[in-house]
Design goal:
The protein contains 12 helices and 5 strands. The chain is of the alpha+beta class and 398 residues long. It is elongated, with a radius of gyration of 39 Å.
Length: 398
């Protein structure tokens, strides 16, 4: 068993709801057995049992650890020896108080030190009245500093337990803050990816609409010269159509032209937008870089509006890009199903599928594909395929 696996199992064990109850009850049973073997006063026995039994509520009500530590110090003051059960319960109590920040660590250490000092002083006064013990130097005389050894040792133990609990709490807070920051960063990146994809869609729509409106303007204007027998009213109507079309093109350039980004390749900037007629070329490009893909078309193939053709093409393009990136060597299948009122599109592969963590999937490409589908009123789902691998399904109604 690896260290990582062992650590994961121990973490799962300590996180179980029954863990504090089982360990608290076991420690109480051990304290009872210790009292049977080494009986003491009623005060000492009661304090020991209260100190250990109170740990059963340490997770549901962390402030109960104050009772745990106080009872442990009381048992130590009531008897000159510190039982093993109380040592364990006291350490756990200090750890719980610091980890859940019931009080500030400085207050916990100061309170524990005062309690340890009070118990130590009580022991010193008890030793001075006990005739069975050898000479106990009065406080302030030579050698009296050694009487506080047990108090110093107890303070050091309390400091260590509180420091450990506070360190664990700080590490957990750091981990939570890091996870929150990472989630916020991922959300921001997804928003930026969606905005960038919307901008790209807007640029493409600008090209499509501008081309169509310019054709209207040209045809309306040329109709005044190529159509014989036009009345003056009809000729004026064609001129108005052409003027309106040119004005619309100017508005389009003014409103959407700002979305254009500088491009170094002028040919690419003026190239026509791809459609499903270019799908074979896209599949050949995928095969040329080592990919494997099949195309299946069902239903009666019908010409679609440019926006639908472009959206479907981009979804297939991004799906194949994700397949090459996250499942190299996998075999992909592109399925187009022309139905009565929609185009059903599916791209699947036989690769390893989505990551088991489920955090993020194959990148921001899914965000762009969903934007493409929603542009035409459709929907897109992505995830593990029925027989493994990864699958993208889109419904593009018209």
């Amino acid at each position: 068993m690896s260290t990582t696996t062992l650590r994961r199992r121990l973490r799962a064990l300590t996180a179980a709801p029954a863990y504090p109850w089982v360990t608290g009850a076991a420690l109480t049973a051990g304290a009872a057995a210790e009292l049977v073997e080494f009986p003491g006063s009623v005060t000492n026995a009661t304090a020991i049992l209260v100190s250990t039994a109170s740990l059963m509520w340490r997770r549901t009500f962390p402030p109960v650890a104050l009772v745990t530590v106080a009872a442990g110090l009381l048992s130590f003051g009531a008897d000159t020896s510190l039982s093993i059960a109380v040592m364990i319960s006291g350490l756990v109590g200090c750890y719980v108080l610091a980890r859940h920040r019931v009080l500030h660590p400085a207050l916990l250490v100061a309170g524990g030190a005062l309690g340890a000092l009070a118990a130590n002083l009580w022991h010193i006064f008890s030793w001075a009245r006990d005739d069975r013990l050898p000479y106990v130097p009065p406080l302030g005389n030579a050698g009296s500093l050694g009487l506080f050894a047990e108090g110093f040792g107890l303070c050091a133990v309390i400091l260590g337990a509180v420091s450990m609990g506070d360190a664990v709490r700080a590490r957990e807070e750091t981990r939570r803050e890091r996870a929150l920051a990472q989630d916020q960063l991922i959300a921001m990146e997804r928003r930026q990816a969606a905005e960038a994809e919307r901008a790209a869609i807007a640029r493409e729509l600008h090209d499509i609409v501008s081309h169509s409106v310019s054709m209207i303007a040209v045809q309306a204007e040329s109709a005044t010269y190529t159509t014989p027998g036009l009345t003056p009213q009809a000729r004026e109507g064609f001129q108005q159509i052409a003027g309106t079309a040119r004005a619309s093109m100017s508005e389009l350039r003014r409103l959407l032209g700002v979305l254009r980004t500088p491009q170094h390749d002028e040919t690419a900037a003026t190239a026509p937008q791809p459609t499903l007629a270019h799908l074979d070329e896209l599949l050949d490009q995928h095969r040329a870089v080592g990919g494997s893909v099949d195309l299946r078309v069902s239903g009666e193939r019908v010409p679609l509006a440019a926006v639908w053709e472009l959206s479907a093409y981009r979804i297939v393009q991004e799906s194949l890009t994700n397949a090459r990136k996250h499942a190299p060597g996998a075999r992909a299948t592109v399925e187009l199903d022309y139905r009565k009122d929609r185009l059903a599109l599916r791209v699947s592969d036989d690769g390893p599928g989505p990551p088991p963590s489920g955090g993020g999937g194959p990148g921001h490409g899914l965000t762009g594909m969903r934007e493409r589908a929603s542009l035409v009123g459709g929907s897109l789902t992505a995830g593990a395929g029925r027989a493994g691998g990864f699958r993208v399904e889109a419904e593009l109604p018209w």
